[in-house]
TrEMBL record:
Segments forming domain PBP: 38-274
Signal peptide from the UniProt entry: 1-21
One Pfam family here: PBP_like_2
Protein name stated in the entry: PBP domain-containing protein
Keyword Transmembrane helix part of the UniProt annotation: no
Keywords from the named record: Signal
InterPro entries: PBP_domain, Phosphate_ABC_transporter
């Protein structure tokens, strides 16, 4: 056996060994960037768009994502208790949270991929279609506001409750005439049947409701909102979100703390890539990057021949 033959045989053996080791890794259930299984914890207020993205990702690659939807606080707790490694949130991690990961010698990959909104809704049995954000703040502080009978949140620990609490400067929890359920679906059903109640939900549930919830969505009005110290009302449309006119817009982030090149990295790249951003665009939300559109200019028009 000459030197060249020995080299080729050695290379072939190394290749087979590499393939075999990779196969063993997948058999153990460990994931790579585009293969295997992973669990993704999702803020319940943005579950519909994540379900759409995951479904397409799974058809494109040999991957399976188990989505677990919870309130924002529950997702964050699972992340810092090492129960969750991949999470999707409506906020980035705070300096304190990042410091905690630094102590573990882990650098979270935080990637924004879309813009969503917090929306106010009312039953269609009322004629109101506008809401001043200052009125909501006043109501949270215990003042009487004629056009608000009560505020209804999806969950006391949700991102929507935190969002309004931050704007109001006081927690919405345990306040008079402010109620919390467990899901956005429950909020939609309750508000649709109760005149004067104002629901606070993730806009994604209006744009992409489950089929069995469409009739309920048709029975609520999404309200136009006037920001504090502003004079105009804006509805949470895709154009208004993109132009920064709607006062309750928020970014969506995937936070990957796997610490290796796994499905967290692959799904994050998919979300911010051409395909993932087009799904965002079609959903009614605003993609982080507007997908490119190719235009072909022809000098002549040809007719198809039968």
């Amino acid at each position: 056996m000459n030197k060249l033959t020995k080299t080729l045989v050695g290379f072939a053996l190394l290749t087979l060994l590499f393939v075999f080791s990779c196969q063993k890794k997948n058999d153990k259930g460990e994931d790579t960037i585009l293969e295997g299984k992973a669990t993704v914890y999702v803020d319940e207020s943005i579950l519909p768009i994540v379900e759409d993205e995951a479904a397409v990702f799974e058809t494109e690659y040999n991957a399976k994502l188990q989505l677990i939807s919870k309130s924002e606080n529950e997702v964050i707790n699972d992340l810092f208790n090492d129960k969750a490694k991949i999470v999707i949130l409506t906020r980035t991690l705070t300096a304190k949270e990042l410091k905690a990961y630094k102590s573990k010698k882990i650098t979270p990959r935080i990637t924004p991929f879309a813009t969503d909104a917090v929306a106010f809704i009312k039953s269609k049995t009322t004629n109101d279609t506008l809401m001043a954000l200052q009125d909501v703040v006043d109501f949270v502080h215990g003042k009487t506001v004629p056009n608000i009978k009560g505020l209804v949140f999806d969950n006391a620990n949700s991102s929507t409750a935190r969002y309004i609490s931050e704007i109001s400067g006081v927690s919405v929890n345990n306040q008079k005439n402010i109620f919390s359920f467990k899901t956005n679906e429950e909020v939609l059903k309750y508000v649709a049947k109760n005149k004067g109640m104002v629901g606070v939900i993730g806009m994604n549930w209006i744009f992409q409701p489950p089929l069995d919830l469409q009739e309920t969505v048709d029975n609520v009005n999404v309200l136009g909102v006037k920001g504090i110290n502003e004079s105009e009302y804006f509805f949470p449309t895709q154009d208004n979100l993109a132009q920064g006119k709607y006062p309750l817009a928020r970014h969506l982030y995937i936070v990957n703390c796997q610490g290796y090149s796994g499905l967290g990295m692959g799904f994050g790249s998919f979300l911010t890539g051409e395909r993932g951003q087009r799904i965002i665009l079609k959903s009614g939300l605003v993609p982080e990057r507007i997908p490119t559109r190719k235009i072909r200019i022809r000098n002549t028009i040809s007719k198809d021949k039968n």
